[in-house]
Amino acid sequence: MTYPALAHRTAVVTGAASGMGAATARLLAANGARVALLARRADRLEALAADIAADGGQALTVAADITDQASVDAAAEAVHAAYGSVDLVVNNAGVMLPNPLADGRIDEWTRMVDTNLTGALRIVRAFTADLVGAAARGRAADLVNVSSIASHVVFPDYAVYGATKAALTQLSAALRTELGPRDVRVSSVEPGLTDTELGGHIDNPALRDQLNGMFRAIPALGAQDVADLIAYTVSRPPHVNLRHLVVLPTRQA
Ligand code: NDP
User: Is 48 domain-assigned?
Assistant: First the structure.
C-alpha cells in the first residue's frame, strides 16, 4: 500500500538493522519520509540505506547501542545535525532471550530490561521534545512502541521477556496521558509470531526447537506485515490515534 501522508515526515527507527525495523524503515522511506536508521550493526544499516537511496528514498545511518546512554546521546546529536527535529519515532529495537526462571540468567534478564525497557526509555528521552515541538507546529507527531503479544499472554520460560513487554505497553498507556494532551500520538503495536532474526539469540536448544516448531506449525507474519500496520497507524489524520494494536498470524491461538 502507499501512504501519501508520510511524505515530508522525519523518522527515527530503532532496530533498523533487520526484521520489522528494517521493513518499517524501507516502507516509510518509500513513501517519502526521511528515515534515521539506528542499530548496532553499521554494515547492515549501510546496506539498507544504499537500497533506500537506490529506490529514490532518503536514509541516514546511525550506529548506536540503546543500552548505552552516551551512544544514544551521540545518536540523537547525529540525527539532529543531519535532519533537525524528528516527528516520528519507532521504538522497535528489542531482544528475546527465553530460559526457565530457575536457571537464574541474570545476564539475559539484564540485557532484556536494558534493551526492551530502559533502551526504549532512552529513545523517548532523546526525542520527546522533538515530537512535542512538531505537534505544537500543527504537524503529525508519533511515538510507536513495538511491544509484543507476550505483554499480555503468558508463555512458559518467557517470563522476563513478557515482563519487559508488559512494562513497555504500560509505558505507552502512561505516556499517552502526558503526550496526548499535547497532540503527540502514542501507539503500542503488539505483534505475534513474525519471521525475523529475533529467535536467533536463543541459547537454549530446547527453546530454540520449540520456537522453530511454532514456525513450522503456523504461517507467521512477515516483517512487512508489521511495517504496513505501523505505516497505516502513523498516516491517519493527526486527531486519530490508533493506540493499541494487536496483530497476530491468523492461525496463532
Ligand atoms: P530482529 O532481531 O530482526 O530485530 C531486532 C533489532 O533490534 C535488530 O535490528 C537489532 O540490531 C536491534 N537491536 C537489538 N539490540 C539493540 C541495541 N542494544 N541497540 C540498538 N539496536 C538493537 O527481530 P524483530 O524484527 O522481530 O524485532 C523487532 C521488535 O519486535 C522487538 O522489539 C521484538 O521484541 C518485537 N517482537 C517480535 C516478534 C517476533 O515474533 N519476531 C513478536 C512480537 C514482538 P543490532 O543487532 O544491529 O543492534
Answer: yes
What range defines the domain where residue 36 resides?
4-235
**Ligand 1, pocket residues at CB < 6 Å:** 14-15, 17-21, 39-41, 44, 64-67, 92-96, 115, 119, 146, 148, 191, 193-194, 196-198, 223
Residue 117: which CATH number? 3.40.50.720
Task: Assess contact for 243 and 176: CB atoms under 8 A.
Answer: yes
In this structure, the residue with its CA closest to atom 6 of ligand 1 is: 15
The catalytic position among 3, 83, 158, 161 is 161
Q: Which residues of 21-58 are buried (b: 16+ CB within 10 A; e: fewer)?
A: bbbbbbbbbbbbbbbbbbbbeeebbeebbeebeeeebb
pLDDT tens digits, residue range 36-92? Answer: 999 999 999 999 999 999 999 999 999 999 999 999 999 999 999 999 999 999 999
Q: Is 161 known to be catalytic? A: yes
Q: Is residue 94 part of a domain?
A: yes
Tell whether 35 is covered by a domain: yes
Is-above-0.90 flag for pTM?
yes
* Gap between the Cα atoms of 231 and 210, Å rounded: 31
Split into its structural domains, the chain has a count of 1
User: Which residue's C-alpha comes closest to atom 33 of ligand 1?
Assistant: 94
Structural domain contains residue 49: yes
